Amino acid sequence: MSDTMQKPVASFFPAIRLDEVDGALAKEIKEECGVDVELCLECGKCSGGCSNGHIFDYTPRKIVQLIKLGEKQRLLHMDALWTCVSCQLCWDRCPSEINVARVMDYLREQTYRENVSPTRKEVALFHELMLGSVERIGRVAETRLVLEFNFKTKQYTKDTDLGPKMFFKGKLNPFSSGIKKIEEVRQIFRKNPLRKEV
Amino acid sequence: MSDRAQKTALVIGGGIAGLEAALTITGAGHQVVLVEKSPQLGGTTRELYSSFPHWENPAELLQGKIDEVQKAGVQLRIGFEVISSQKQGDIYQVVLEGPEQKREELVADAVVVATGFELFDVSAYGEYGYGSYPGVVNTLEFESRLREWAKGESKEAPPKTVAFIKCVGSRDRSKGYPYCSKICCMITAKQAGLVKEIWPDARCHVFYMDYRAAGKGYEEFVRSVIEEKHVRYTRGRPAKILPEDGRLLIRTEDTLMGVPVEIRADMVVLAAAMQPGRGTVEMSRIFALNTDEYGFLEPVSGQAARVGERVFAAGGCIFPVENQGALQQGAAAGAGVVALFNQAR
Predict the structure, then answer these.
(1) What's the whole-model pTM score?
(2) pLDDT of residue B57
(3) Which of A63, A157, B28, B246 could connect to B338 by a Cys-Cys bridge, CB 3.0–4.6 Å?
(4) B226 touching A, CB under 8 A?
């Protein structure tokens, strides 16, 4: 982990040197996500309709703009990464078909790869537990996921009312069985490890 | 005099609009005298290296029109200016002055004014340093630079970074005009695209408030410059150009982010506003023409080209216009003259 990664990013912007923006981030996003930020019309339709935009530090249009400006560290440290619910309304409505949700996914992966700690640790934990369940049994074991999450976040009594009700209505299976070809799922995880081998 | 067998129209200005007007009038069997004050026909179009939205060389269009005009028997008065005119009934008695104060009088049954626009003097902006920093040029100066580069006539090293500032004198109540000069967005996109074509490794940055591409194929043209030629558009109106180590430092804001940005460039192109030229102001006085508050000619309400008694206008003297628009307006003014002449028959 490099030192620069954990440095807090100032909320103000020192002047960005446009002649030093080399376009590497835009290129990376194009190659990794298939998203070409040069197509952006800067109209703001993504931001206006974003389901969580009201609590984003950077709204989707600004995220695209930050990619153009090569501000990778700012993007990796932004809070919006952990409040985006991947509803894809931005992508659905974009006149240039820019898939901001895909970019958000990619940036979240990058925070893992570059060991940037998420601004919302519980969100990252939830992602981790959910993916852990998939890796273990090939599907999400909801009951265990909820219990694990509540336990790890010390919310011991959370969902104690709702849980039994859902169980008796048949909405919650306490014993999720694994899938048959679990080895194939695990292969996927092995091929694409989120964390670098230390 | 109005029953003279053959009528003569006076066309003032030998740019693309004037040439087209002359062709339309001679095409209908009338006489045309075309006056051009500069030593060559072609007007502003002659100064252009390329055009939008098809990257065509306007020299070909222009030469074609000049050849046609010569074939059509248009009487050319190159190097001449209209210095006075007197209206007597349905005719104008016009005095021309040519090289060595040579005077010539003629009778015109109608007049087409096609005196074009001129560039706003961008040295009005002290903050941009035009006239002080050699790397800061205006639209037409850069156009000839592009021609030299493309033909390999320039001995300068290729620029690493070229920046374009739009709306210099346009949309500015303080130092320029409140109006939008309409064609600078397209010219800038074209010029930035050409830089990338000639010097693919050069960086090209355009600073804009918005880009106005209202024309057939225009939006696609600008988008292709951004998306395929990778010209970077940054929204913001630069505040200041400073010299720095032999280069030019531009300070502005990226208004989409609300953050300050700066850039070092070797050359800065100011997209100058377009204003009525001296010739247009003179002609409006001599022929008592309708003008707007800026001095551009203003067609009579509800008419395409008529700006006075038996006087029609076309091209940049009405408002900044591109080649295609000038061509259409030239034809409209010519048609106005022909309709007038045929009515009196």
Answers:
(1) 0.90
(2) 93
(3) B28
(4) yes
